[in-house]
Design goal:
single chain, 7-stranded mixed β-sheet
Length: about 120
């Protein structure tokens, strides 16, 4: 069994910063790619940023230069540092992690419960 616990969302003014965290726990053999997605009201869920287990990163064009994804493999945690936030960044942010667990010994995708980020003055 695997759990993903997200934290760090909230209300921030335009131009402000937030840092999201997503910690994984459970019967984990290996963690592969980790990433952050977001879903705004009335829109489809979209990729924000992802990071491989070797540290290669990928960003949506809309967040390049403003957001930074990182991971701490010792803590099984992925972070999203969000700077220069805009109103259009308002959404529910979900972490997505690909695991291999002792229970299945197969690569499986897990999603966090989501954390609300609201950018408003």
């Amino acid at each position: 069994q695997v759990q993903l616990v997200e934290s760090g969302g909230g209300l921030v003014q335009p131009g402000g910063s937030l840092r999201l965290s997503c910690a994984a726990s459970g019967s984990i053999v290996r963690i592969y790619d980790m990433g952050w997605y977001r879903q705004a009201p009335g829109k489809q869920r979209e990729l924000v940023a992802s990071i491989t287990n070797s540290g290669s990163t990928n960003y949506a064009d809309s967040v390049k230069g403003r957001f930074t994804i990182s991971r701490d493999n010792a803590k099984n945690t992925v972070y999203l540092q969000m700077n220069s936030l805009k109103s259009e960044d308002t959404a529910i942010y979900y972490c997505k992690v690909d695991f291999m667990t002792w229970a299945t010994l197969t690569k499986t995708t897990y999603w966090g419960q989501g954390t609300q980020v609201t950018v408003s003055s």
